[in-house]
Design brief:
Radius of gyration of chain A: 13 Å
Number of helices of chain A: 0
Number of helices of chain B: 0
Number of strands of chain B: 11
Structural class of chain A: mainly beta
Radius of gyration of chain B: 13 Å
Order of helices and strands of chain B: EEEEEEEEEEE
Helix content of chain A: under 10%
Helix content of chain B: under 10%
Strand content of chain A: over 45%
Oligomer: heterodimer
Distance between the termini of chain A: 40 Å
Largest sheet of chain A: 6 strands, mixed
Order of helices and strands of chain A: EEEEEEEEEEE
């Protein structure tokens, strides 16, 4: 119940295309869902996050779509650029508890020039 | 310049030696975390601490130890009991209360044990 399942494991997209990464969870107590971006040899950095009271959040080219009934959320990267090539992690947390994150296994995105 | 520092960036040790990884933050965060990252396995929580002088085991605490004597510091010791210590270690911190739930990560330490 504590797992967050992330797919796909890897993704190749042409420059200008849309990258879509999906995550699913079981624990309905999760109420904070962040996405992190990690470049090789660096620590992850927060990209965008959503609470379950909204179905979509957009920041620039990055959008989170959230489906509470399906217990799924996804990251959409519009107009993907080679500089977006990185590993992306979704996570989930129960904010009334310890603030611990449960991370997905990551998606390695490569955007072709 | 606020943030989290981890040192060293690369660390090499012989099997059977204990090694301590440093993590310092100047963000005034209450909570600190240690994660281990292996290829294809995401980030796994080793230990976390919500306040000074208190810490809890995460999902993979065996073979590791921590201390939290100061709010700013959360060092991780990888002991000789850890069977497969070679990995990328990440430290993170966050506020423990309020509306900000974000965990901020340090740059990581890559440990190689031979």
């Amino acid at each position: 119940q504590q797992q967050v399942k992330q797919s796909p494991q890897s993704l190749i997209v042409q420059k200008g295309g849309i990258s879509i990464i999906n995550c699913a969870y079981e624990n309905t107590a999760f109420d904070y869902f962040p996405w992190y971006q990690q470049f090789p040899g660096k620590g992850p950095a927060l990209l965008i996050a959503i609470r379950p009271d909204v179905s979509e959040k957009k920041e620039g080219r990055f959008t989170i779509s959230f489906n509470k009934s399906a217990k799924q959320f996804s990251l959409h990267i519009m107009d993907s650029q080679p500089g977006d090539s990185a590993t992306y992690f979704c996570a989930a947390s129960v904010t009334s508890g310890t603030y611990k994150y449960i991370f997905g296994t990551g998606t390695r995105l490569k955007v072709l020039a | 310049d606020g943030g989290i520092t981890q040192s060293p960036k690369y660390l090499f040790r012989k099997e059977g030696q204990n090694v301590t990884l440093s993590c310092e933050q100047n963000l005034n965060h209450d909570a600190m975390y240690w994660y281990r990252q292996d290829p294809g396995q995401g980030l796994r929580l080793i230990y976390y601490s919500q306040i000074v002088n208190d810490f809890q085991k995460g999902d993979i605490a065996e073979g590791y130890s921590v201390s939290r004597e100061k709010k700013e510091s959360f060092p991780l010791t990888v002991t000789s009991a850890q069977k497969n210590p070679t990995a990328f270690y990440l430290c993170a911190s966050s506020f423990r209360t309020g509306a900000s739930y974000e965990q901020y990560f340090g740059p990581g330490t890559r440990l190689t044990v031979t």
